[in-house]
Every structure is written in structure tokens, then in C-alpha cells.
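Q: What would this chain look like folded?
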Amino acid sequence: MRGEIRRLKGNLRYRILNINEDYYLIDTGSSPWKAIFPFLFLIFRNPGYKIDEETALQLLTNQKTQMRKFAIYGFMAGGLSISLSGILMPLTNRLNIDSTFSINIIITFILVSMFIMGFLFLLRVLKQNVEKTISYTDLPKHQIKIYSPKISHILKIQFFSLFFAAFSVTFLIAFINYSNIFILFMGLVSLILFLLYGGLGLDHGKYKIKF
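A: My prediction, written as C-alpha cells:
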């Protein structure tokens, strides 16, 4: 059978699957492995929670109001981390201490940890937004196998995911060696894009579905 997947406006974590007017809520943020390897969404089964049509339409329309809050949290986390990177580096100069390899490793570890924790916090906020409408974990749960209509979709998603991951690692390693703030900034931006891109493994469109 075939079904259509739609993204929730203003909520990057969840998808609504429509199969012959039967609706299922899919949580793309439930597995960290699928965030790292998006093609796993299309290889392994995904948990789907059966919801009624009214709830599905409510989720698809009411999430618009959460977009601004999501953006604010994202800018706060990113701005705080990048600002901290600008504070920590001049601090070494004020103390007349050259930025050493070890210090750069500590700075990188702190900032990457902040970004990851900020991303996990955003996922938690998005889950709470949905739970304001429905407590889906108490609903009937189905394991749904989703097939991509084109192999090119899988390859494209995984290519860009690995691309951002490789760029992030490369830039962060370069910062550790050369103490360049711009390189650090690019590494953190690439990290954000990598974290956000994983959920696109289940993008808007029509798919072949199997229970």
C-alpha cells in the first residue's frame, strides 16, 4: 500500500503518515542512530502511533505557532555557544597564555557539548509541544516499514548528512591546530546542519508502506 508523509509545520521532529485516511504520528527524533544515518529510516521499521483525523489535522495546523519559539531557542543556543567561543579565546590572550593544543581541545569539547545539549533540549521542547495536543505514547503503536520511491532519495539524504559531518569534523580539527575563530564558527555551523538534516530522511512525499 502507499501512504503520504507530511511534516508538522514548525516542528522538525514529527511526521504525519496518511494511509487511506488512517493517520499515524511518527517521531523522527526517537533514535540517535537514525539522526546520524538518515537512510536507516528507510531500512528499519519506524514506530507509528495511530491517531484520529481530527488530531492529525490539529497537529498539522496548530504547530505554526511554535515556529517562532523553535527559532528563538535555536538562536539562543547557537548565539550563546558562538559568543562563548569569542570569550574563551581572548581570555587566553588577556592572561598572556598562548592558545595551546590542549586549550583548543577543551574549548572545542565545551562548545560541541553545548550544541549537542542544546539540540537535545530542542527535541524535548518539540515533543512537549506535540504532547500539549495529545499524549501519543499511550496510543496503539505500530511498527511501520517505509520504502523510498527512489534510491536517489536515500543517496542524497545520506550524502548531505555525511557532507556536513565531515565538514564539521574537518573544521573543528583545523581550529584545534590553528586557533582560528572563523574556522571554529564554520565547524559549529556544519554541526548544526548535520544535526538538523537527519530528520529529512522522512521528508514530505508519498512512500510505499508495509506493516
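The radius of gyration is 20 Å.
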